[in-house]
Amino acid sequence: MAFNVVFWFCNRMGSVPESKGIMRTTTVEAEKLKLISEGCNLKAKEEKHVSKDIIGEVFKTHHAIQTLDKTISNLEMELAAARAAQESLLNGSPVSTDVITAESSRKRKYLMVIGINTAFSSRKRRDSVRATWMPQGEKRKKLEDEKGIIIRFVIGHSATQGGILDRAIQAEDKKHGDFLRLDHVEGYLELSAKTKIYFATAVSSWDADFYVKVDDDVHVNIATLGETLVRHRKKPRVYIGCMKSGPVLSQKGVRYHEPEYWKFGEAGNKYFRHATGQLYAISKDLASYISINQHVLHKYANEDVSLGSWFIGLDVEHIDDRRLCCGTPPDCEWKAQAGNVCVASFDWTCSGICRSADRIKEVHRRCGEGENALWSATF
Questions:
Q1: Phi and psi torsions of 160, nearest 5°
Q2: Is the link from the previous residue into 259 a cis peptide, with omega within 30 of 0?
Q3: Are the C-beta atoms of residues 176 and 141 closer than 8 Å to each other?
Q4: What does 18-76 look like in DSSP terms, one character per residue?
Q5: Cα(345)–Cα(217) distance, rounded to whole angstroms?
Q6: Is the N or C terminus of the chain more exposed, i.e. has fewer CB atoms within 10 Å?
Q7: CA 358 to mean position of chain CA atoms
Q8: Closest residue by Cα to residue 204 from 314, 96, 276
C-alpha cells in the first residue's frame, strides 16, 4: 500500500495544482518531500540502468543467433557434400576427379564455379569455347590459383553407361581435363534434373561465393562476369540473371510446352519472374539449399522455370542485369565500344549463338573483353 502511494506521488509530483486552501508546508514536510523526490530520481536512474542492461542482453542474444545460423548452414553444407560423395560411391557412377578431391579443394575459397552445360553431340561447340573465352592448360590452372575461378564442362552419362558416348567423353576429358561428370542420365527433357545435380555436385566439390550455369553456345567475358558478381558478394542469397516472365504454353507440340500449365492459373497467364536459362548465377547459400533439398524440389518441363520455382517462398534477392543477355554483333560490339562490356552474348532467336561452333570466334573478336582484362582484374 505504501509503495502504491509513493508511486502515485512520484508520478504526480511537479504537477500538483495550487489551492488557496492548502497551507504552506512546514520545514519537516519539505524535508519529507525532498526525500521522496530523491527516491523517485534514484528509482528512475535504476530503471534506466536496467533498460541498458536489457538492450545489451538482447544484442548479445541476436549476435549468438546469427552465429548459430551460420554454423548450422556450414554443417548442412558439409552434410550435403558427404551425402553426394556417398551416393556417388554407392551408385558407382563416373564421377570427376574434382569430386574425389573435394575435401582438399574445400580448404580453398573460390570466387565462382562456372559450369558449362553440354551434351554428347556438342564436341564442336566445346572446342569453339576452348578456342575463345575458356583458358586452356596452364592458363586455366592459373585462373583457378590466382583468380579463384573454376570452369568445367558439365555432363552426365548415357543411358547405356560405359558405352561409346561415355568413352568418347572420357577420352576428351583425358586430353583436356575440363569436365565435371554428373550422376545423371543425359537427355533434353532432363535438364531440370541435371541442373539440380550440377549445383549439388559443384557445391560439394568447391567452396565458392557463386555458382554459375551457362550453355555451351554462349559467349562469356569472364572478367566482366567476375566484376559483376563481386558487387553482390556480401549478400547472403542472390539470384542473378536476365529476369523474364514468359507465357505459360499449354498447347501440345509447341516449343517450351508446359505440361503442368494448369498450376499457373487461367489460360494466357505468365510465369513468375525467373532468369533466362542461357546464363545465371546463384550465391553459395542457394546452391547449398538446392543440394540439401534436391530430392523434394519439383521439376517443371523447362529448366529455367524450375530453378525460379525453387526460390519462391525463400528470402532471395533477384538481380536483373541485362548485360548477362546481350545480342551478338552489332549489339554487344556497340555496347563494348561505349564502355559497357557485356557479360554474355547470344541470339535470342536460337536461344544461343546461332551456328555457334562457326560464329563464336567472330563474336569473341568483336565483343571479347581482351585477355589482359582477365589477368589484370582483381576480385
A1: -100, 80
A2: no
A3: no
A4: P-TTSPPPPHHHHHHHHHHHHHHHHHHHHHHHHHHHHHHHHHHHHHHHHHHHHHHHHHH
A5: 9
A6: N
A7: 33
A8: 96
- What is the grid cell recorded at 104? 582438399
Answer yes or no: are the C-beta atoms of 290 and 199 closer than 8 Å.
Answer: yes
pTM of the model: 0.75
Q: Are 113 and 196 in contact (CB under 8 A)?
A: no
Do 274 and 222 meet the contact criterion of CB atoms below 8 Å apart? no
Per-residue pLDDT reduced to its tens digit, 157-179: 999 988 999 999 999 999 999 99
Asked if residues 99 and 88 have their Cβ atoms less than 8 Å apart, the reply is yes
What is the rounded CA–CA span in Å between residue 246 and residue 264? Answer: 12
DSSP state of 17: P
Grid coordinates of 344: 554474355
> E-strand spans in the chain?
109-117, 149-157, 179-185, 207-215, 219-220, 238-241, 243-244, 274-275, 279-283, 317-320, 344-345
Instruction: List, for residues 9-65, the tens digit of each pLDDT value.
Output: 344 444 444 444 444 445 555 555 554 555 555 555 555 555 666 776 766 666 666
Taking the alpha carbons at both ends of the chain, their separation in whole angstroms is 70
User: Contact at 8 Å (CB) between 361 and 342?
Assistant: no
